[in-house]
Specification:
The protein is an alpha/beta fold. It folds into three domains: about 130 residues, 3-Layer(aba) Sandwich (Rossmann fold); about 160 residues, P-loop containing nucleotide triphosphate hydrolases (Rossmann fold), CATH 3.40.50; about 80 residues, Orthogonal Bundle (Helicase, Ruva Protein, domain 3). The protein has 16 helices and 14 strands. The chain is elongated, with a radius of gyration of 27 Å.
């Protein structure tokens, strides 16, 4: 996958030859067309990953060709070349789905840099499509960080077992995403995947939520109700923010893990379950143990395989790919034409410490799309937490 086959469309022989020779040295398979009509003929008979076309051509204009490329090869990336006098058309091409434009004349370094950026974009789109079509998790995994790639590889390995996994990390780092990937790659992938946010359930209801209750077990229990463990039987149960489980309920949770059975609230008949447990926490559980807020024996039962996700500020190579991913996602969801980030905007995002991690980045990109600053988001459009900036100086 990625960019392998490139079509160059330009009516100037010198430009065609210049680009073709340069890109062939990069080991790309290159085809050329001297006009839009010839390009359309090639597009109907061959497949291309990338099309580089001039905006101003006889017979079939660059804009017309762009529309046809998107019809014939929707996944192909289109880069438009333009002279200063036709830059308005290039901006219109961006609105119609072009990846970017290059102002003539340009250097080999410039085209290579744009193609590298296009590769990154293509990689995100392909991974997103694969994960969505193959069911590899409830949320897409986007990373170019070596540390995160290693974590994901370890998660896939442990997924094939029944071992309990404890995933720790700051809020917003993607703990649930890793948990979803573990279930999706497991032998239980076609069985239930039940998630419960332990922090969102009142202490008085959490036992009923976990284990269910019998009719009449307490005021308001008008019917028998299965709990999350019962619903997850045969599959996976994710206990999100497990540090928030009340200390008095932890022995019952430990018993379920050890004996694989429990009783509903108000019931007396043991119910056996086969559940694979995953847990997440944004708190240091060893500190919670020292403070008598978490049982040590429960911790060791859950922590068979520990995974710690680094904050976004420690994997800065993921910031821009994630920003582009969220930008494309939000444009689609909000019915906006695809927007791009200027170089200065990318630099501003890269330098920010992201105390709220990926969730904060996602929220900021959503705000930028909703406010609609046009086809290109500039650095001064991005409002960041000044206190967080001061803290990293």
């Amino acid at each position: 996958m990625g960019i392998e086959r490139i079509l160059i469309v330009d009516d100037e022989p010198l430009m065609r030859n210049f680009l073709a020779e340069a890109l062939k040295r990069g080991l790309y398979e290159v085809s050329v067309a001297e006009n839009g009509k010839k390009a359309l003929s090639l597009l109907k008979s061959q497949s291309f990953d990338l099309v580089i076309t001039d905006m101003k051509m006889p017979e079939v204009s660059g804009l017309e060709l762009l529309r046809k490329v998107k019809e014939i090869l929707p996944s192909a990336i289109v880069i438009v070349m333009t002279a200063f006098g036709t830059i308005e058309n290039a901006v219109e091409a961006m609105r119609l789905g072009a990846f970017t434009y290059l102002l003539k004349p340009f250097t080999i370094d410039a085209i290579e840099a744009v193609i590298e950026k296009a590769k990154e974009h293509q990689s995100l789109v392909q991974e997103n499509t694969f994960l969505r079509e193959e069911g590899k998790g409830p949320t897409e995994i986007i990373t170019f960080s070596p540390s995160m790639r290693k974590i994901f590889e370890e998660a896939v390995k442990v997924a094939k077992t029944n071992a309990s996994v404890l995933i720790q990390g700051e809020s917003g780092t993607g703990k649930e995403v890793i948990a979803g990937a573990i279930h999706a790659h497991s032998l239980r992938a076609d069985r239930p995947y039940i998630r419960v946010n332990c922090a969102a359930i009142p202490d008085t209801l959490i036992e009923s939520e976990f284990f269910g209750h019998e009719k009449g077990a307490f005021t308001g229990a008008n019917a028998k109700r299965p709990g999350r463990f019962e619903l997850a039987d045969g599959g996976t149960l994710l206990l999100d923010e497990i540090s928030e489980i009340p200390i008095q309920l932890q022995p019952k949770l430990l018993r379920v893990i050890q004996e694989r059975e429990f009783e509903r609230v108000g019931g007396h008949k043991p119910i056996s379950v086969d559940v694979r447990l995953l847990a997440t926490s944004n708190r240091n559980l060893q500190e919670a143990i020292a403070q008598k807020l978490f049982r040590e024996d429960l911790y060791y039962r859950l922590n068979v395989v520990p995974i710690t996700i680094p904050p976004l500020r420690e994997r800065r190579e993921d910031i821009i790919p994630l920003a582009h991913f969220f930008l494309e996602k939000q444009c689609l969801e909000n019915h906006k034409k695809l927007m791009t980030l200027s170089h200065e905007a990318e630099q501003k995002l890269s330098e920010y410490p992201w105390p709220g991690n990926i969730r904060e980045l996602s929220n900021i990109i959503e705000r930028l799309v909703v406010l609609d600053y046009g086809s290109t988001i500039e650095a001064d459009h991005i409002l960041l937490d000044s206190s967080a900036l001061r803290s990293c100086v």
